[in-house]
Specification:
With 332 residues, the protein is an alpha/beta fold. It has 11 helices and 11 strands. It has 2 domains: 194 residues, D-Maltodextrin-Binding Protein, domain 2, CATH 3.40.190.150; 105 residues, Periplasmic binding protein-like II (D-Maltodextrin-Binding Protein, domain 2, 3-Layer(aba) Sandwich), CATH 3.40.190. Keywords: Signal.
Length: 332
């Protein structure tokens, strides 16, 4: 392995190790205290991505709404959120910690064959739906999604597609697009990135090995879209996103490209009924705050709240659906 790659790999390991240590310390600091006093929110990804955004918005909402006294966010990046999931599994019975989860983690669990799943957590709530977009640099020759798909179909290997973790929702959307246009999934070149920040850097770079097309949640690209540095070609959503001048996949005649990224919260396994009820109540109060309402509007989310048994049933059916979809798409 080249020296630069070795250094980069060691850097990733070191960052992950430090994040895990910080998380363990943060979680232990809450032992014996009620969640109303000291709450830890895990974002199982690097800062700047979708999970981090949800965690930070939740932190702001419970702070400004006086829902809890102290809340801290801890980032544990890696492996489509499954590193964070494994750390959460080690905190069985810890009542003052919640972790952000969603579609990406289900894909990571399925593709990695992880022995730990969301069935090994305490489901708290589904919060909202977040929508994917296909974006290119402002100076890209692709003015429409049809321009891009035409070039991709002619030579898939010449057009790498950038996104988040392998097997995650960005990867699945890329595979759905490939299927819709008759591009063999095995010929698709998908370049995973550890977070939205790294993906946007790649999109804006002209260096070798970077990508010219990105698929991710809109909010990963929002600032660069609003500043005119990136252009959205299409949105994967039932309706157009407010303030985003780009058609839906349905409008473009691609109804089979339809994956929606939901966001939710889970707690460690083994917490008691009272502790679970308290975390659910904290979440209900959080989503009722003005701060959370503003976050939903600002981030173009759609509320889809579910608690208790309804959320538990959803997690089981959603994992089954993602497992089947990854197999259908040739990604598992």
């Amino acid at each position: 392995m080249p020296r630069r790659q070795v250094i980069a790999a060691l850097g990733i390991v070191l960052v992950t190790a430090l994040a895990v240590a910080a998380f363990t310390d943060a979680a232990r600091s809450g032992e014996g205290q009620a969640a109303r006093s000291n709450l830890t929110m895990i974002a199982p990804a690097a800062a700047g991505g979708g999970w981090d955004l949800v965690a930070r918005e939740a932190q702001q909402a419970v702070r400004t709404g006086n829902v809890v006294n102290t809340v801290q966010v801890v980032n544990i990046p890696g492996a489509a959120g499954t590193i964070g999931l494994n750390q959460l599994a080690g905190l069985a019975g810890e009542e003052t910690t919640m972790m952000v989860t969603g579609t990406v983690m289900l894909g990571g669990i399925s593709q990695s064959g992880s022995a730990i799943s969301l069935q090994d957590t305490t489901p708290i709530a589904r919060l909202a739906e977040d929508f994917e977009v296909v974006a290119v640099p402002a100076d890209s020759p692709f003015r429409t999604l049809e321009d891009l798909l035409g070039a991709w179909a002619r030579d898939p290997a010449a057009l790498p597609i950038g996104g988040g973790s392998a097997g995650g929702i960005d990867h699945m959307v890329a595979a759905q697009l490939a299927q819709a246009r008759g591009v063999p999934v095995e010929r698709m070149v998908y370049t995973p990135h550890p977070g939205g920040g790294e993906l946007t850097l790649s999109l804006l770079s002209t260096a070798a090995g970077t990508v010219g097309v990105g698929i991710s949640g809109y909010n990963d690209f929002r600032d660069l879209v609003e500043s005119g540095q990136l252009r959205v070609l299409a949105v994967v959503a039932p309706e157009r996103l407010a303030g985003v001048d780009a058609p839906t996949m349905d409008e473009l005649g691609l109804p089979g490209v339809d994956l929606v990224n939901w966001r939710g919260l889970v707690a460690p396994a083994g917490i008691g009924p009272q502790a679970r009820a308290e975390l659910e109540q904290i979440t209900r109060e959080m989503v009722a705050t003005e701060s959370w309402d503003e976050a939903v509007t600002r981030n173009r989310w759609v509320r889809s709240e579910a608690y208790g048994e309804e959320f538990e049933r959803f997690l089981v059916s959603e994992q089954r659906r993602i497992d089947d979809l990854l197999k259908e798409l040739g990604l598992a």
